[in-house]
Design goal:
The complex is a heterodimer of chains A (about 270) and B (about 300). Chain A is mainly α and about 270 residues long. Chain A has helices at about 5-25, 25-50, 65-90, 90-100, 100-105, 110-140, 150-180, 185-200, 210-220, 230-235, 240-265, and strands at about 55, 60. In chain A, strands 1-2 form a two-stranded antiparallel ribbon. In chain A, strand 1 (about 55) and strand 2 form a beta hairpin. In chain A, helix 1 (about 5-25) crosses helix 6 (about 110-140), helix 2 runs parallel beside helix 6 (about 110-140) and helix 7 (about 150-180) runs antiparallel to helix 9 (about 210-220). Chain B is of the alpha/beta class and about 300 residues long. Chain B is built from 10 helices and 14 strands. In chain B, strands 6-7-8-3-9-10 form a 6-stranded mixed β-sheet, sandwiched between helices. In chain B, helix 2 packs across helix 3 (about 110-125), helix 2 (about 95-105) runs parallel beside helix 4 (about 140-155) and helix 3 crosses helix 4.
């Protein structure tokens, strides 16, 4: 009657109808807040700059590109991206189970792993399409404060790429956690804001077991460099090269999705009556 | 293709399922032949567990389960031959009926146009053509049941598995759906339909499997337990516009033992469910007492019959 659907073709079908569901879900309000709040913050910074109230560090006023770097690193890479990864990634399968719609997907001739993959792609599209424009708006609000848009523009492209890779990596890790564990949210939050934050401060090899370690190597400029803490951290920093980071992040994404797919294939989802 | 040696559509060999310490199904041996088969049992009997095992949502803790001659757990390709209508009232509410059925049919590896054509045909079959462009969130209970059935039949499967498919339908749609399921059986397809209402199953097929407390009590002809059922009052919940007029009409019948009112509904106990349902369908068709929205039956009456069967 029809060709047997492959993993990828099935994932694309799941992606097709999951994207709309995801965009209109309650989580989109949460995403809107996470994406909107930094824009509001950038507007406030711009107003402060116009009023001449910007902070002075080491005798000189902090410029727009530096402020943008701080926002990128501290707000987006260390907070917004992991939070989105935790809340969306862990819910990819959980939402279908809670809504009891998973039955319709698991009684079709598609590999179960394609459901996870399709929903992961929908998460990626949904978050990237909403997050990146927010960063661009912030760039145009903040960078002109004592900086040149033209000069900073290549860095913006790198930052956007880093955020997209971060969204993909955190999403994949938490998609696996969500597929593997019954109560994944707490584990996800502990990983993102306990393990990752702590281990990055400890010298040694443990930091290589974090996503943030490889992300920060992609755009080291974005890290704040003007505090005693950052100077101390600098002593312990042994950042990998961009290419090593990209390869490691790609490996993390592939491994997490493969493990997540295996977990979905083998797990029984018992729906509450 | 069925199990070549025995012509068995669904075969369970000493299948058990445990949820931790709780037994969901206990040493079930079952051979479902081609045609329509009813799976009858009260809530908590193990019907849902058996349906979930048969549809490959759960893996047997023990024993072997084969559907259409193949193991079902982890066997994705077999679902192109199976249509499943689950019990739960769960949908992607923002989608229209047509979008939803098309999306699910497309998972069978069909192109967009073919999927849409199949979805249109299925929605027409269940009588939802005129509302196929409406969001599912705006559907009535009966429409939601029918759109679930549409997604199950759209790809023309060999085996249709229906979990409480008539729940919440009004009498006219219920009659139409029963006819549809019977037509499906006459066309050489197989149907396994679960219900806690004997009358429903009886109107579709004489072949039943009785299940209670995780065990299959009996397989065979429905008429053998028919008399037992009649001895126990049957409770029917009727949601309608004119509940007082309906109640007045019901009270005139000898077989109506009692009735009470609930919000927008009347709950009737009858000693002759077959006669009662026939009268109700006629009333709904005539429209003389307004619209009858929903007819459901709690399983207390069936539970009483099963208790009797277990004792004897």
């Amino acid at each position: 009657m029809s060709a047997r659907p492959t993993l990828f073709s099935s994932a694309l079908r799941v992606f097709d109808f999951s994207l709309g569901q995801m965009l209109w879900s309650r989580r989109s309000v949460f995403l809107g807040l996470l994406v909107g709040a930094p824009i509001v913050l950038a507007v406030v910074v711009r107003i402060f700059a116009i009023a001449g109230w910007l902070p002075i560090v080491n005798g000189s006023q902090v410029g727009g590109p530096a402020l943008f770097g701080v926002l990128m690193w501290l707000l987006f890479v260390r907070f917004v991206v992991p939070v989105l990864g935790v809340f969306y990634g862990t819910s990819l399968m959980a939402d279908e189970v809670d809504d009891k719609t998973i039955t319709y997907l698991f009684t079709r001739p598609v590999p179960r792993a394609s459901v996870l993959l399709g929903k992961y792609l929908a998460y990626l599209a949904c978050v990237v399409l909403l997050l990146l424009p927010s960063i661009i708006i912030i760039f145009f609000l903040v960078v002109p404060i004592g900086g040149s848009i033209g000069q900073a523009f290549p860095q913006l492209a790198a930052d956007l790429g880093m955020v997209a890779v971060g969204v993909a990596a955190y999403g994949a890790v938490f998609a696996f956690v969500g597929a593997w564990l019954k109560r994944p949210l707490i584990v996800g939050l502990v990983f993102a804001f306990g393990w990752e934050q702590t281990v990055l401060l400890i010298p040694g090899y443990l930091k290589r077991l974090t996503v943030a370690y490889y992300l920060q190597a992609l755009v080291p400029h974005a890290m704040p460099q003007d505090s005693a803490l950052s100077m101390l951290l600098g002593m312990f920093q042994d950042l990998p090269s961009v290419w090593v980071s990209l390869v490691c992040l790609a490996a993390i994404i592939a491994a997490a999705l493969w493990l997540g797919g295996r977990a979905v294939e083998n797990r029984e989802y018992v729906l509450e009556q | 293709m069925t199990d070549a040696a025995t012509d068995v559509i669904i075969g369970a060999e000493h299948v058990s399922k445990w949820y931790g310490q709780v037994i969901g199904l206990n040493d079930v041996v079952l051979k479902v032949q081609p045609g329509i088969t009813g799976l009858l049992g009260p809530n908590g009997a193990g019907k849902s567990t058996l349906m979930k095992l048969i549809t490959g949502q759960l893996k047997p803790s023990k024993g072997v389960l084969r559907v259409l001659g193949e193991p079902i757990w982890g066997n994705a390709p077999i679902y192109s031959r199976i249509g499943f209508c689950p019990e739960q009232d769960a949908f992607y509410e923002r989608m229209t009926g047509l979008e939803w059925v098309t999306a699910l049919v497309s998972l069978n590896g069909l192109g967009e146009t073919a999927s849409r054509d199949m979805a249109v045909r299925a929605l027409e079959t269940v009588g939802l053509s005129d509302v196929s462009g409406k969001r599912i969130a705006a559907y009535s209970k009966g429409m939601r049941q029918r759109v679930k059935l549409a997604q199950a039949i759209a790809h023309d499967p060999e085996l249709l598995i229906l979990d409480e498919p008539l729940s919440g339908m009004d009498p006219l749609v219920r009659r139409k759906m029963i006819r549809l399921i019977k037509d499906w059986g006459r066309a050489g397809k197989s149907v396994l339909v679960s219900s806690h209402i004997l009358h429903e199953i009886e109107s579709m097929t004489p072949n039943i499997v009785l299940i209670n407390q995780g065990r299959v009590l009996a397989e065979g002809n429905v008429h053998q337990i028919r008399d037992l059922i009649d001895e126990h009052p049957h409770t029917v919940y009727v949601k309608a516009d004119e509940t007082r007029e309906l109640a007045r009409r019901f009270l005139a019948d000898d077989h109506v033992l009692s009735l009470r009112f609930e919000e927008g509904a009347v709950v009737v106990q009858t000693g002759r469910p077959d006669v009662f349902y026939a009268q109700l369908t006629e009333l709904a068709a005539s429209g003389e007492l307004g619209v009858i929205h929903e007819v459901t039956s709690p399983d207390d009456n069936l539970q009483a019959v099963f208790q009797y069967l277990v004792k004897s």
